[in-house]
Design brief:
With 225 residues, this protein is α/β, with parallel strands linked by helices. It has one domain: Alpha-Beta Barrel (TIM Barrel), CATH 3.20.20.190. It contains eight helices and nine strands. The protein has an eight-stranded parallel barrel with strand order 1-2-4-5-6-7-8-9, surrounded by five helices. Strand 4, helix 4 and strand 5 form a beta-alpha-beta unit. Helix 1 packs parallel to helix 3.
Length: 225
């Protein structure tokens, strides 16, 4: 079962910051997951729609200027990083799972993955691009059909993993609250991997392993070394 550091080692450092990413690498994570949003001509690594929970700022991130976003404290003196800053830090040392958090992300992420392959040593096999925004994921697939896709769901779909298969995804990424053995089996019959978020307890890991899931996203990669 693959262990993927969720927003970096976000149970030990401020989520989606360079500190969380560096700590995940230090802990030996084979993969890191992060979220990207587009604002003022840049891809920012940030999960929430609004700034209040994770920073000292206010408002909707995508409405803000670059100068304002760069001025914010994202915890312990960390800034909200750009995707390129995170890519530069990782430099091909592990897989990178990039979640597209909404519109206007597919094209710039496609461009930066190409640039990172050329300049930072990333390989094609080190990318997984995912989204709950399935039209945006389909747009990304048209731009970079050679890269793996993760189809995200926060519920138990009526047709199980059919939607992920229709998207041409490599993996079905499901909430731990909704996954069951039938969904896992259906995904595997369709040739899909099953990755589950967010798993921080060993007992949940063991339950999921018994179902045959292929990987988990965790805020505490140190617990699963």
């Amino acid at each position: 079962m693959q262990i993927i550091a969720h927003r970096g080692a976000s149970g030990l450092a401020p989520e989606n910051t360079l500190r969380a990413m560096a700590l995940a690498i230090e802990l030996g994570a084979s993969a890191i997951e992060l979220d990207v949003q587009w604002a003022d001509g840049e891809l920012w690594v940030f999960h929430d729609r609004r700034l209040e929970r994770c920073t000292n700022g206010r408002g909707v991130l995508t409405d803000q200027s670059r100068a304002y976003i760069e001025s914010l404290d994202a915890g312990q003196g960390e800034q909200i990083p750009t995707l390129w800053q995170v890519m530069t830090l990782i430099a091909g040392r592990c897989e990178l799972h990039i979640e597209l958090k909404g519109p206007h992300t597919a094209e710039p992420v496609a461009a930066l993955t190409r640039r990172a392959e050329a300049e930072l040593g990333f390989r094609l096999a080190q990318w997984v691009v995912s989204s709950f925004h399935h039209p945006e994921l389909a747009r990304f697939a048209a731009l970079r059909p050679e890269l793996r896709l993760g189809a995200l769901t926060a519920n138990l779909p009526l047709q199980h993993a059919q939607f992920a298969e229709q998207l041409g995804a490599w993996s079905l990424n499901c909430d731990v609250d909704f996954v069951d053995a039938e969904l896992v089996a259906d995904a595997h019959r369709r040739g899909l991997k099953v990755l589950i978020y967010t798993v921080d307890e060993m007992s949940d890991r063991d339950t999921l392993a018994a179902m045959g899931v292929d990987g988990i996203f965790t805020n505490r990669p140190d617990r699963f070394k």
